[in-house]
Write a structure and sequence with these properties.
Radius of gyration of chain B: 13 Å
Order of helices and strands of chain B: EEEEEEEEE
Shape of chain B: globular
Largest sheet of chain A: 7 strands, mixed
Oligomer: heterodimer
Structural class of chain B: mainly beta
Helix content of chain A: under 10%
Number of helices of chain A: 0
Number of strands of chain A: 11
Shape of chain A: globular
Order of helices and strands of chain A: EEEEEEEEEEE
Number of strands of chain B: 9
Radius of gyration of chain A: 14 Å
Strand order of the largest sheet of chain B: 1-9-8-3-4
Chain lengths: 121, 112
Amino acid sequence: NAGVMQNPRHLVRRRGQEARLRCSPMKGHSHVYWYRQLPEEGLKFMVYLQKENIIDESGMPKERFSAEFPKEGPSILRIQQVVRGDSAAYFCASSPPVAGGAGRGSYNEQFFGPGTRLTVL
Amino acid sequence: DAKTTQPPSMDCAEGRAANLPCNHSTISGNEYVYWYRQIHSQGPQYIIHGLKNNETNEMASLIITEDRKSSTLILPHATLRDTAVYYCIVRPYNFGNEKLTFGTGTRLTIIP
């Protein structure tokens, strides 16, 4: 079972361009999360999506950032008109559907991808 | 904001047990304690989680105090590959509240 896949692994954009980051969750996972890690900082939650629905976008900047998780295909994090401050590592995580009740082990565990490192020149 | 406090860094000799403390004095009754680690800019890796009982898996043990205000992650026989930043996270057991709130973590360095 392949893990969470993210592409590209490295992305270079000039100021004002658009960045598209893709995340393919693990097989059978219907929940996707995006996190951002600025240099020398911890990860910050951005958005939580299920298929075709945004569940929690409380960490998303109000402008230029959007995310989707269509019925078919990967989740996309889109950054329009990038600025230097957008340079960071962007991590995607996925988790399986919620079980019927309290569980152990992998219940609610989030599996992270390798990240996309965005550099804005 | 993270609801946990961890020392910024620790060293441990290879082969010894690494004990990483975490304070979570404001933890609520419905909140679990989770541990993740991040090895040199890779994606975070889940280690273990618990509510109030001590837990053990193939990677580590988690000891939670009786009042649940603090916990300790134990790596029983640390290897060089355990060098990483370790994050202690409290998270509600509440369907729909799925995000992880990472603090600054503890940078653990395993010394040969």
